[in-house]
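2024-03-11 09:14:02 INFO worker-7 job=invfold-0412 stage=load source=structure_tokens
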């Protein structure tokens, strides 16, 4: 299924290019919203292909997208998802594993760079890195924040607010405050828990990458 999913996504990307710019934007919002539901990526691509063909047919008949699928895109998506089977427990576990591995693949190099700077300027412990209690807490908070941002973006894909209008500035102010809170432990809790050799950091990064790829191959 993984190979079919990639092929289907490639086909959909080519098909989507046939749409007008306006309808491409609408389709993007629809796909993003669909990703907020408890359904597989493969089924999302199946639905994406069906909707793309519907909109393309509407363009050939000089119809607007709202004339084809209705003015309430969110309700349209909800009705489709209600007819689809949810993820199985196995699929949920695989998705969670993939998500966690990907987050560590992104966060580990960032942590390594900051730890390298500390080891070079403060600890003078190279080739070993200091592992601070606050850094681990910050990594945990940032990972949780990333999950929350993804959930928020997918759930609100149809809510359009212009910059500096409505509650836009409040949202960004809240996000900035949350980011500061996430990074605060790394500045407050400077206790060194242990040191880890640079070679082990590289090895861990390679193992995480291999596990992420393997998880993707085994995810059926």
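2024-03-11 09:14:09 INFO worker-7 stage=emit residues=220
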């Amino acid at each position: 299924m993984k190979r079919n999913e990639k092929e289907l996504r490639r086909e959909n990307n080519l098909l989507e290019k046939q749409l007008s710019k306006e309808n491409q934007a609408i389709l993007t919002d629809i796909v993003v919203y669909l990703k907020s539901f408890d359904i597989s990526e493969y089924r999302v691509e199946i639905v994406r292909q069906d909707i793309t063909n519907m909109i393309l047919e509407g363009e050939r008949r000089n119809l607007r997208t709202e004339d084809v699928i209705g003015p309430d895109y969110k309700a349209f998506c909800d009705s489709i998802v209600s007819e689809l089977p949810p993820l199985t427990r196995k699929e949920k576990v695989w998705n969670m594993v993939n998500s966690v591995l990907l987050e560590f693949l992104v966060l580990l190099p960032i942590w390594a760079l900051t730890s390298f700077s500390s080891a070079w300027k403060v600890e003078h412990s190279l080739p070993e890195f200091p592992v601070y209690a606050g850094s681990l807490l910050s990594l945990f908070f940032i990972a949780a924040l990333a999950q929350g941002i993804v959930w928020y973006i997918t759930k609100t894909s149809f809510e359009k607010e212009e910059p500096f209008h409505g509650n836009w500035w409040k949202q960004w102010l809240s996000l900035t405050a949350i980011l500061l809170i996430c990074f605060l432990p790394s500045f407050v809790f400077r206790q060194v828990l242990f040191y880890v050799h640079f070679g082990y950091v590289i090895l861990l990064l390679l193992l995480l990458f291999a596990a992420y790829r393997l998880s993707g191959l085994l995810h059926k």
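2024-03-11 09:14:09 INFO worker-7 stage=report msg="Strands lie at 128-132, 192-197."
2024-03-11 09:14:10 INFO worker-7 job finished
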